[in-house]
Design brief:
The complex is a heterodimer of chains A (277) and B (924). Chain A has 10 helices and 13 strands. By secondary structure, chain A is an alpha/beta fold. In chain A, the strands form 3 sheets. A 6-stranded mixed sheet of chain A has the order 2-1-3-12-4-13, with helices on both faces. A 5-stranded mixed sheet of chain A has the order 8-7-9-6-10, sandwiched between helices. The N terminus of chain A is likely disordered. Chain B is an alpha+beta fold. Chain B has a 6-stranded antiparallel sheet with strand order 7-8-6-11-10-9, sandwiched between helices. The chains are: A alpha/beta (277), B alpha+beta (924).
């Protein structure tokens, strides 16, 4: 009975949202909400102006919640890292990548790094049994990358050392600086940002596909999705250059095949036994 | 364009004054409310200022403690000293160590509300921002951060509001000095979020926001600009983005703040305060609630305006103040209205009194009668212009003088005022009416008709024992007496023809008869009145045909004359020459008959004539007296548009209208729209409207139309009413002169015309003869006179009757007039005797004229319906000598010649010279 009632309420809410014509956008859960709003508000405003549809933020505290909400048709658009996207796509085939956002250097690929405070004189091999900082479980630069880097450069797996989730890339960086963790995984750009405070990169991954804007075919029609993609790809630089740092360097068309590397890393990690300290 | 009446103008003036005063009172209470409201607002502003300063002070102590205990530690100072000496490559490591060293302290600061914790090198470069560690390495901030410059150059702590690269804030910057070495500075800043929290705790009922001047926000890093949005209230100010600032979000989401932002955006007081960049507060009333918006100005460290702390609070006291001001304003308006109405009423009353006074003045000044007012001592206190004109004294000469001694004593013989009836009337307060004599300034004595009446100015008896003033109206009756004398003379002229006169109505009932009638018939007047003459004097000796002929004639509107034998009351018979004249009214309908009876008995003739003359005089006198008594002057006045504004009873009586039928109506349209002859009387010809236009006084004769449509003649005296140099209307004094005109016509006709032949009667003939005789004497002219008498006329009467005799007389009259020039005078002197006056004709010429006439008469018989009656005439001719004493003497001479002609066999002409010769022959 409760299940039926829940389904009924969900359908009613969905119908209400659709009737109102509102696009629901889920940003990254990794950074603080103030930063997210500052970074993504211009994008949402641009979509509103071009489509005439109001767009609102739907905040979730972690990737798992975002993926659940997406699959439950509570999200129309989501800004996701590569790993979350592949996880979402694996469980919810209606997730369709719209565009990839370029890095500051114009590429559509980036790297994740393992970083530590230079004053601590830490080498990867010495990290065993030292606390590590990760972003979030489904963050590309989290378990997926750190596990791969540790295996490659330290000879042990992530599960063989203690680690904790700090929430965001920046939080990982600051946790390293404050001495809370000995090292942590983050995007290379973040590590460079804090280099002025003595943060140094211990190891890098191969290039990974960039962050992607994903549309929900369960809530948006194919023509609507095509219209959004076309609109975003034709956005002039004079417009997107004023958007937030992660999305201000331009966009490329995204395809599911771009994420094959991520799927491989993911498969490798899943192949090793998971052992949470 | 018709001008407004004075009453409406005054009403409009008072309405304007009331509105103006009401506006002034309204402005006063508005200013009073504003003062009180601004006072309340200032108190609120002071409260906000105190709360703000309290918050800043509280954190200042906290910051100072943290600086001393957490920053000024050796290990921290060691790192800073190393940073001062480090290369660029070494700095990151030192920053990281510093971060790690103070990381926990910073977290504690954040928990207490301090957000910004920032180390600087001595040259102003940023060393480490704990609140934004990734932003580092920016060059010297001395130019944009005066606090850093001061702290690092003057080496003293700096406290105050200031902009910045990340967020503006309330800065506490301390120079860091170790053993005399300047190592840089540290800054601990307080964000507005924290101040907002404290303000909300200290002043819990308000909405608060920080509005940053755009120049302050311009310092922020480009990637941090989206932390700010434009303030709703003014485009020069920014506020923290409500999306990221809880304080700003609370402010934006407050219904009260939304409403007040909308109101204040258009508020001039806000714009003016912001323009001056000073602290101010604005009281606001909206939807029955009071609010106060306080703007606490914040300056940066250089004293330049940087921001406003804005507080919106509810202020119910404003409603109380506003309601009190409204109540006071309402009461003041009521009092003002009452005062205005009182003054208006007073002015209206005064104006009406002035108008009444002016009207009375005009009436008294328009009156043709003299009027003065004397007190109980006989001293003149007031006089009108007519009194001055009549007495020839000026107003100043009359006023203050005892009237009796000035104008009355000389002729009255009453040297002492005590015996003067006017003086006595003034002393006793009684009325007096009578005739007396006055003396003018030039010494002319003239008869006056005087009427004295006490002036009781109110119904209440006077508290003093002094009798009231007495108004004396007098009329110079010199002209009236002369007119009476003249009429008496005219009446005397009727002596020759007037005998017994009877006036009957249309049914022949006697209305009036003169004493001669009584004398003639023996019937006294009271016995005759109401009876028909035939009931009294009819002898039955006349044939019915005579009466039939008489009635045929008079009913045709013609006079009838005949001789009848009547019977006196005592039964005796007498002969009378009876003339009956029908008198129609203005519509031609027979209203009266006038019968003139002449006793043709020789002895009776003279007595009857004398009696008739007396009766006539008395009749005329009585008629005149009646006219004088009944002809009270009608008086009315109009306004500038010709609308009647007052009218006296005499006028109402004459016009036949009720008072309310005249007042406020156009007098011209009511009773002056046609002339007497029935022709329309346009406004442009109306003397009354002419005076309305040019203000000139007019005395004219005209005609009025009474309510029944009857036109009657009037004499108008029209005078303009001038008030304060403006012509406001006219006063018309009029007399009904219908009776007078009718009398004049009738008297003239009776006095000058022979009713049978239509030629001048004896009186007229003699009057003009006397005038001509005067001309002869003055200019030595030749003039001749003829006396003519129809031969054997009695036989004509006896044979053919008097009607035929009258026809012969009329035939002779018409025949003779064919021979006359315009300058010749022809009159019937009596019976069949006629006279002719030939100016500028000598005796020979007159004789020749007489002969031609005599022959023509003899050859021209009078042809009636049944008869052809031949008749002749005898003529006596004489010339008017310059030395002859009178007309009667000359006529006597002509009569002698006529007698000669008669004696000589009739139908002949004899002149005076021939007459003398014949007398001499007879005498010789």
């Amino acid at each position: 009975m409760r299940i039926f009632l829940g389904i009924f309420l969900f359908l009613a809410w969905q119908a209400q949202s659709l009737a109102a014509g509102i696009l629901r956008f889920a940003p990254l859960p990794l950074e603080n909400r103030e930063t997210v709003i500052r970074q993504f508000s211009p994008l949402l405003t641009h979509i509103e102006e071009k489509t005439g549809q109001p767009v609102r933020f739907v905040f979730h505290d972690n990737y798992d919640d975002i993926l659940k909400a997406f699959a439950n048709a509570q999200i129309d658009l989501a800004y996701l890292g590569p790993l979350p996207y592949t996880r979402l796509r694996q469980s919810f085939a209606q997730a369709e990548p719209l565009v990839q956002f370029r890095e500051a250097d114009g590429s559509i690929m980036y790297r994740c790094v393992l970083a530590a405070f230079r004053g601590d004189h830490i080498r990867p091999q010495k990290l065993k049994n030292r606390p590590l900082g990760l972003t979030q479980p489904l963050s590309t630069c989290g378990e997926l990358s750190v596990n791969g880097l540790l295996q490659k450069h330290a000879g042990f797996r992530l599960q063989q050392t203690p680690y904790r989730y700090m929430g965001t890339h920046e939080a990982v960086a600051l946790a390293i600086l404050s001495g809370e963790v000995a090292a942590g995984g983050m995007k290379e750009a973040i590590a460079r940002k804090y280099a002025g405070l003595g943060l140094e990169i211990l190891a890098r991954t191969d290039l990974l596909p960039g962050f992607v804007l994903v549309a929900n075919r369960a809530t948006l029609s194919p023509s609507h999705i095509a219209q959004l993609r076309q609109m975003l790809l034709t956005t002039p630089e004079s417009v997107y250059s004023h958007w937030g740092e992660p999305i201000r360097h331009g966009m490329n068309p995204a395809a599911d095949s771009d994420y094959a590397n991520v799927r491989r890393l993911s498969a490798a990690m899943l192949a090793s036994p998971k052992q949470k300290p | 364009m018709t001008s407004l009446s004075p009453r409406i103008r005054i009403a409009a003036l008072f309405l304007a004054l009331f509105l103006f005063a009401g506006l002034a009172v309204g402005l006063f209470f508005r200013a009073s409310y504003d003062n009180q409201a601004n006072h309340v607002a200032r108190q609120n502003s002071i409260a906000l200022d105190v709360a703000y300063r309290s918050t800043i002070s509280m954190y200042r102590l906290d910051v100072e403690t943290r600086f001393k205990n957490q920053v000024l530690r050796d290990e921290v100072l060691d790192l800073l000293q190393q940073a001062n000496d480090a290369t660029a490559d070494e700095l990151p490591l030192l920053r990281g160590r510093l971060y790690r060293m103070l990381y926990k302290e910073y977290q504690d600061m954040v928990r207490t509300g301090l957000r910004q914790f920032h180390f600087h090198l001595p040259d102003g470069r940023s060393l480490l921002r704990f609140h934004s560690p990734a932003h580092l390495g920016d060059p010297s901030m001395f130019d944009i951060r005066p606090s850093l410059r001061i702290a690092n150059t003057e080496l003293r702590p700096v406290v105050g509001f200031e902009g910045g690269r990340i967020l503006p804030g309330f800065r506490n910057v301390y120079p860091i000095i170790r053993a005399g070495r300047h190592l840089g500075s540290v800054e601990l800043s307080l964000p507005f979020e924290r101040i907002h929290q404290n303000l909300s705790e200290l002043l819990p009922v308000g909405d608060y926001a920080l509005l940053l001047h755009r120049s302050t926000v311009d310092l922020v890093f480009e990637d941090q600009r989206d932390k700010f949005v434009t303030a709703e209230i003014h485009s020069d100010y920014r506020k923290e983005n409500p999306v990221i600032s809880q304080a700003s979000r609370m402010f934006v989401q407050s219904i009260r703040a939304k409403m007040l932002n909308t109101l204040l955006r258009e508020n001039n007081q806000v714009h003016e305060g912001i323009r001056r960049q000073t602290s101010f507060s604005v009281p606001i009333l909206h939807d029955g609630k009071g609010y106060i918006a306080s703007f606490h100005a914040i300056s940066d460290l250089q004293g330049k305006h940087a921001a406003y702390v804005v507080g919106y609070t509810e202020a119910p006291v404003l409603i109380d103040i506003h309601n009190a001001a409204l109540r006071q304003f309402g009461m003041a308006l009521v009092l003002l209205l009452m005062l205005t109405l009182s003054i208006w009423g007073l002015m209206h009353h005064r104006q009406r009194l002035a108008a009444e006074k002016n009207r009375l003045h005009i009436i008294t000044e328009t009156l043709s009668d003299g009027l003065y007012v004397i007190d109980a001592n006989g001293i003149i206190r007031f006089t009108n212009q007519a009194a001055c004109d009549i007495t020839e004294y000026s107003r100043d000469e009359l006023l203050g003088q005892v009237a009796h001694y000035l104008i009355h004593k000389n002729i009255s013989g009453e040297k002492s005022a005590e015996t003067c009836p006017i003086f006595n009337a003034a002393q006793t307060g009684e009325c007096y009416t009578g005739e007396t004599w006055f003396t003018s300034k030039s010494g002319r004595n003239f008869p006056v008709e005087v009427s004295c009446r006490p002036m009781h100015e109110s119904e209440m008896p006077s508290k003093s024992n002094m009798p009231p003033n007495t108004v004396v109206v007098f009329r110079d009756i010199t002209a009236t007496r002369a007119a009476l004398e003249h009429m008496r003379l005219q009446s005397a002229a009727l002596d020759a023809t007037a005998n017994a006169i009877v006036i009957t109505d249309a049914d022949t009932l006697i209305e009036w008869a003169n004493p001669a009638f009584t004398a003639l018939t023996g019937y006294p007047l009271d016995e005759a009145i109401g009876k028909k003459p035939k009931e009294l004097v009819r002898s039955g000796l006349q044939p019915n045909e005579l009466y039939q002929a008489m009635w045929q004639t008079i009913l045709a509107g013609l006079p009838w004359r005949g001789e009848v034998v009547n019977r006196k009351k005592d039964g005796t018979l007498y002969h009378e020459d009876l003339t009956i004249t029908p008198v129609p009214d203005t519509q031609g309908k027979l209203k009266h008959f006038i019968a003139v009876k002449q006793d043709i008995t020789a002895r009776k003739l003279e007595e009857a004539a004398a009696q008739l003359a007396r009766i006539e005089i008395e009749h005329l006198s009585a008629r005149n007296e009646l006219l004088l008594n009944s002809a009270g002057d009608g008086i009315y006045g109009t306004d500038a548009n010709g609308l009647c504004i007052f009218v006296n009873p005499a006028a109402l009586t004459m016009l036949g209208f009720q008072k309310d039928e005249l007042l406020n109506h156009d007098q011209h349209a009511l009773f002056h729209h046609h002339h007497h002859d029935g022709q329309p009387n346009p406004h442009t010809n109306c003397p009354i409207y002419q005076t309305l236009q040019d203000g000139l006084h007019r005395d004219v004769e005209d005609a009025f139309i009474n309510k029944n449509g009857e036109i009657f003649d009037v004499h108008l005296s029209v005078t303009a009413i001038e008030e304060a140099g403006k012509r406001n209307g006219i006063v018309v004094v009029f007399q009904d002169i219908t009776q007078r005109k009718r009398m004049e016509v009738e008297l003239n006709r009776l006095a000058s015309t022979d009713t049978l032949t239509g030629i001048p009667n004896r009186r007229q003939f003699m009057t003009q003869f006397a005038v001509e005789l005067e001309r002869v004497r003055r200019y030595q002219k030749n003039t001749s006179v003829l006396m003519l008498d129809l031969d054997h006329f009695k036989r004509v009467n006896d044979r053919y009757g008097h009607a035929t005799g009258d026809a012969v007389l009329r035939h002779f009259s018409e025949l003779t007039q064919q021979y006359l020039r315009k300058v010749d005078l022809f009159g019937r002197l009596g019976g069949e005797e006629f006279g002719i006056l030939l100016p500028d004709t000598d005796l020979a010429g007159a004789y020749e004229f007489a002969e031609r006439l005599r022959k023509h008469v003899a050859a021209s018989p009078c042809v009636t319906a049944t008869e052809s009656i031949a008749y002749t005439v005898s003529i006596g001719v004489t010339a008017c000598d310059h030395d002859q004493p009178s007309a009667d003497h000359i006529l006597a001479q002509a009569d002698k010649a006529l007698y000669q002609a008669k004696s000589g066999g009739r139908n002949q002409t004899v002149n005076v010279a021939a007459a003398h010769t014949s007398e001499e022959q007879e005498g010789g």
